[in-house]
Design a protein that fits this description.
The chain has a single domain, classed as CofD-like domains (Rossmann fold, 3-Layer(aba) Sandwich), CATH 3.40.50.10680. Helices cover 38% and strands 20% of the residues. It has a four-stranded parallel β-sheet. A three-stranded parallel β-sheet has the order 1-2-3, with helices on both faces. A three-stranded antiparallel β-sheet has the order 5-4-6. The longest helix is centred in the C-terminal third of the chain and has 15 residues. The radius of gyration is 18 Å and the shape is globular. GO terms for molecular function: LPPG:FO 2-phospho-L-lactate transferase activity.
């Protein structure tokens, strides 16, 4: 799986129960909150998305998960807002010289089912170029600009070198039978991985079936008014070719006035369906009820998505 944010851990947690050789490739362009502070202070890849994936792919007891995910209170001075897991990943990264090395150790410690790889071994800075030619630098600032994103790209945060994929990432993509992207923020969780040149080239050249799990809701500052076909077109435009084979689309309606706009203020309305547009993207469309409603939010049903991914993989084999 390729992505970041809170979307892919839901699917990874379900896929971990299946008889598959699972690899997660996770974005390292987050510069906000605890991850942003730690990457700036220690010159490491941001740990937040990696932390959530580590928990999703681990068989750690519930108490361990609660400890790992515990976030210090706003009144806790220098520790304010930091999850314990972020501090653990940061500490082991410093101790072992890289976040890649830290993840290998922590994966063994927490009995991770599969592999977790940062998309790059250095922190990356995300740049968004809007239709009006304005460029916004930094993942945490992009949603605040009132415009439509044209494209994004990444640079190394600490130097001017071309961003490189983390060791083993390209090999995993090339050896995979099925590659799953999403769900997750299109411009800030998925594309920061895809636009790394080595990863982009690997996605073009791999023989794997590439599956995109389309988002259920549009996102403020990123995909306002987007249809499912618009999501696919953006991905194809960034790679430079039609590389996605199959798209999973949720067709179950989110009830009117269901979303808690105070709790989930970044999500706007349900993604519109454009099946003719998807057909023109030359992708296979699997539409079903992938919806899970929880605490005023609309999420993917991880088990339903995982079952569909397994069917896709079995048909290919």
């Amino acid at each position: 799986m390729i992505g970041g944010g809170t979307g892919i851990p839901v699917i990874l947690k379900a896929l971990r129960k299946e008889a598959v050789d699972l690899t997660a490739i996770v974005t390292v362009a987050d510069d906000g909150g605890s991850s942003g502070e730690l990457r700036g202070a220690l010159d490491i890849a941001p740990p937040g998305d990696l932390r959530n994936v580590l928990v999703a792919m681990s068989d750690m007891p519930k108490l361990y998960e609660q400890i790992f995910q515990y976030r210090f209170k706003a009144t806790d001075g220098p520790l304010s807002g930091h999850p314990i897991g972020n501090l653990v990943i940061a500490g082991v990264s410093e101790m072992r010289g890289s976040t890649y090395n830290a993840l290998q150790i922590l994966s063994t410690l927490f009995h991770v089912q599969g592999k977790i790889l940062p998309s790059s071994e250095t922190a990356l800075t995300l740049h968004a170029v809007f239709k009006d030619k304005t460029e916004v630098v930094g993942e945490s600032h992009i949603a605040d600009y009132p415009g439509t994103i044209d494209h994004v790209y990444v640079t190394n945060t600490k130097n001017s070198d071309t961003p490189c994929a983390s060791r083993a990432v390209v090999d995993e993509i090339m050896a995979a039978d099925t590659i799953v992207m999403g769900p997750g923020s299109l411009f800030t969780s998925i594309l920061p991985n895809v636009v790394i040149p080595e990863i982009r080239d690997a996605l073009i050249n791999t023989t794997a079936q590439i599956v995109y799990v389309c988002n259920i809701m549009t996102q403020r500052g990123e995909t306002e008014s987007f249809s499912d076909a618009d999501h696919v077109k953006v991905l194809h435009n960034h790679v430079g070719t039609e590389f996605i084979d199959t798209v999973l689309v949720n067709v179950e309606k989110v009830p009117d006035d269901y979303m808690d706009n105070n709790k989930f203020d970044e999500y706007l309305v349900q993604v519109k369906h454009d099946f003719i547009g998807l057909q023109n993207c030359h992708v296979r469309v699997i539409s079903s009820d992938f919806l899970r409603l929880v605490d005023g939010g609309a999420f993917h049903n991880g088990q339903a998505v995982a079952e569909e991914i397994m069917r896709i993989s079995e048909r290919r084999s």
